[in-house]
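C-alpha cells for chain A. Residues wanted.
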C-alpha cells in the first residue's frame, strides 16, 4: 500500500510484505518521569525510539488504511526474530523471520501480485527465502520498527502533552498533521500506540514488552524452486 505520508513511518512495518522485556528487566508501569515531561518532543521521540530499539520483545498490532486499501498487522518482535500475520486488502500473510531466513505462507491472491504466473505453486505453502531474496522483509525486526519511527513527513509540535493510553499515563508526541505517538511516562519511555493522521488512517498498539514467544522455522518449509516441483497446492 502506498500513501503520500506515513505518519511516524507506520507503513514501514508492512512495506516489505507488499513488495515481495521492557528495557532491561523493568515493567511498563511506572510512577512517571518529570524529567521526560520537560524534554522537547524531538528528545522524547528519540528516547522512545531508543527504548523500543533496546527492548527484549514487543507485540505490535493494529490496522491502517489509505486510498481505499487497508492493512492489518499482528506481529511479535523479539531481537532479530519476528512472527505473526499481515493482512493486505483481505489476503492474510503469515510471516516467520528467524536465523536470517524469512518464511511466508500466503494465499494465491497475495502471490499473484508478487510472483505472477508462479502464484499457484507458491500459494498456501510455507515458502523459505534468504535475506537477499526477502528484500525489505529482512528489516522486519524490532530494531527496524524502532528505526522507522520518525516524523520526516510532517513537523513535530515542539511540546509534548499528557494523556491516557492503555489505562496508564502517557507522554504524547504529536505531528502537525494530527498523528500522535503515545509513550510510557517513565525514565526510559517506550511506545504504547501510534495514531496515524493525514491521508493514512489507523492505530498501531505496542504491548507485552519483555514477553517472549517461541519463534522457530515452520515445518515443511520449501524454497520457491522446491515448491514449483511439488505442483499446485489445494490447501
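Reply:
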Amino acid at each position: 500500500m502506498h500513501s503520500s505520508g506515513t505518519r511516524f513511518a507506520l507503513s514501514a512495518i508492512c512495506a516489505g510484505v507488499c513488495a515481495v522485556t521492557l528495557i532491561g528487566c523493568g515493567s511498563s508501569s511506572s510512577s512517571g518521569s518529570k524529567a521526560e515531561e520537560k524534554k522537547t518532543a524531538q528528545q522524547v521521540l528519540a528516547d522512545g525510539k531508543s527504548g523500543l530499539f533496546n527492548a527484549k520483545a514487543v507485540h505490535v498490532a493494529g490496522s491502517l488504511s489509505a486510498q481505499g486499501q487497508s492493512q492489518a498487522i499482528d506481529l511479535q518482535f523479539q531481537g532479530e526474530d519476528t512472527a505473526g500475520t499481515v493482512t493486505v486488502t483481505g489476503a492474510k500473510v503469515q510471516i516467520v523471520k528467524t536465523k536470517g531466513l524469512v518464511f511466508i505462507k500466503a494465499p494465491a491472491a497475495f502471490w499473484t501480485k508478487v510472483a505472477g504466473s508462479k502464484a499457484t505453486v507458491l500459494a498456501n505453502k510455507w515458502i523459505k527465502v534468504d535475506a537477499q531474496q526477502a528484500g525489505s522483509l529482512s528489516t522486519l525486526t524490532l530494531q527496524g520498527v524502532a528505526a522507522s519511527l520518525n516524523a520526516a513527513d510532517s513537523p513535530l509540535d515542539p511540546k509534548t502533552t499528557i494523556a491516557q493510553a492503555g489505562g496508564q499515563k502517557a507522554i504524547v508526541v504529536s505531528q502537525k498533521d494530527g498523528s500522535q505517538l503515545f509513550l510510557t511516562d517513565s525514565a526510559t519511555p517506550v511506545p504504547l500506540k501510534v495514531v496515524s493522521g493525514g491521508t493514512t488512517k489507523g492505530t498501531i498498539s505496542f504491548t507485552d514488552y519483555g514477553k517472549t514467544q517461541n519463534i522457530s522455522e515452520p515445518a515443511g518449509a520449501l524454497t520457491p524452486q522446491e515448491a514449483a516441483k511439488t505442483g499446485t497446492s489445494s490447501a
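The chain has one domain: 10-23+30-214. The chain has eight helices and eleven strands.
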